[in-house]
TrEMBL record:
This is Photosystem reaction center subunit H. Residues 1-81 form the PRC-barrel domain. InterPro entries: PRC-brl_dom, PRC_barrel-like_sf. Gene3D superfamilies: PRC-barrel domain. The lineage of its organism: Archaea, Methanobacteriati, Methanobacteriota, Thermococci, Thermococcales. It holds the Pfam family PRC.
Length: 101
């Protein structure tokens, strides 16, 4: 495994595996107990419609770490694992239906 310093990731561009420019890495969110990186916090590209993406209260994109395919000159994000609001709505609706008597 190649080790990369977090400082080298700052402002690195994020692009999906389908070629959509998401934005630039702004911060990382960690689990305090395990130290595991959970989420990439990204400043969205100015041309990106963020209405379907999961964002924080400041409008920054929240990208699950499990969606990262590779890190090189830029960070490649697997679009099928990218958290989008429509997926989250479908998941919560399915969970709701399964919990009904």
């Amino acid at each position: 495994m190649v080790k990369i310093k977090a400082s080298k990731l700052r402002d690195m561009e994020l692009i999906t595996d389908t070629g959509v420019r998401l934005g630039w890495l702004y911060d990382l969110s960690f689990d305090e107990e395990t130290g595991e990186i959970l989420v990439i916090v990204a400043e969205p590209d100015e041309d990106l419609d963020t209405s379907e993406f999961v964002t924080d209260h400041e409008g920054l994109l929240l990208i699950p770490m499990k969606a990262v395919k590779s890190i090189g000159e830029f960070i490649v994000i697997d679009h099928s694992k990218l958290a989008v609001k429509s997926k989250l709505r479908r998941i919560s609706m399915i969970k709701e239906r399964l919990q009904r008597p």
